[in-house]
Amino acid sequence: AQAQQTVKIGLILPLTGPFTAIGRQVEMGARLYMQQKGNTVAGQTIELVVKDDGSVADTTKRIAQDLIVNEKVNVLAGFGLTPLALATAPLATQAKVPQVVMAAGTATITEASPFIVRTSFTLPQATEPMGDWAFKNGIKKVVTLVSDYGPGIDSEKAFSGVFTKAGGQVENLRVPLANPDFSPFLQKVADAKPDALFVFVPAGQGAQFMKQFVERGFDKSGIKLIGPGDVTDDEVLNNMGDVALGAITTHHYSVAHDSPENKAFVEAFKRASNGTRPNFMAVGGYDGMHLIYEGLKKTNGQGGQALIDAMKGMSWTSPRGPVSIDPQTRDIIQNIYVRKVERVNGELYNVEFATIPNVKDPVKAAK
Ligand code: DHB
């Protein structure tokens, strides 16, 4: 028998600090995949090296450099926030190491290196359908409130573009990403009296937003809550209470997605994590590992350019539904679902009620 070699995957995530929830979900998703499929692929042993960047971009970059030079990793993966993915991109290019972005969502990320491939989503991809849905459902005036960095600005522009083109009226507000106080912004929303408030905050921050939303009496204001699905992410949603009921969001994953693949995924995830619900970040990690495993099968264990090329055009059935990697952009093509928060068997869920199939990132599709 041939001696086995090792393929090393460096998984860099925020596992301390304010964005720990994102890192934990991605890590648990990745580990679940390995637990289910084993650690041998194409005759090679897969070794996962997990590192915490505390969501500081300079740290992500330093860790990536160390993993490339000293650990000789074959793949870099993770990237919980946009600045962390962007800081690493030049290293992936220089070392010709595939960088699998499992979480971050700013559209331009895949253009930062030809070695980047993404299994999460892009904000414009998830958000444009919200602009359509809102106008067609009688919403004429909207205030947008987004975290003031890449993905927030992407979602603001995607929504505002589609919604105003349809004939809607929009006012844009931005809130700092770190330790946000939503109160002064919510006062402006109350004064503007829109039909709906559109919100993007990163996964995990929805809980803090919703607390201030209730404190300001918005649950009784008649102003609808809409946005991409990050604000009602499946991990924090169940603790939000009745205030979240009726929120309409568009996104690529709901824990309530009705498919045999998702039922099996959710059950296994909860079993492996003391009952924690997976959210869209967990699915990004799980699918990212799938892409690496299937890519390695195609290259017979080879990494570098061959592995990136093998990943292009790959398609599979994810817990979220059918997905593929766009061979031109290395971004994921996937269904976007329109969902409404409902109480089902005593728990809050984003219940999908419409599907826009096979959505590409619209920013790159327009180029
Ligand atoms: C990012 C994007 C998200 O949609 C999210 O929920 C968290 C982080 C990001 O790209 O930084």
Low-confidence regions: none
Indicate the percent of residues in helices: 25-40%
Structural class: alpha/beta
Radius of gyration: 20 Å
Stated plainly, the CATH topology of the largest domain is called: Rossmann fold
Largest sheet: 9 strands, mixed
Oligomer, anyone? single chain
Molecules bound to protein: 3,4-dihydroxybenzoic acid
Question: How many domains would you count in the coordinates?
Answer: 2
Number of helices: 12
CATH superfamily of the largest domain: Response regulator
Average of the residue pLDDT scores:
97
Shape: globular
H/E element sequence: EHEEHEHEEHEHEHEHEHEHHHEEEEH
Number of strands: 15
- In angstroms, what separates the terminal alpha carbons? 50 Å
CATH class of the largest domain: Alpha Beta
CATH architecture of the largest domain: 3-Layer(aba) Sandwich
Beta strand %: 25-35%
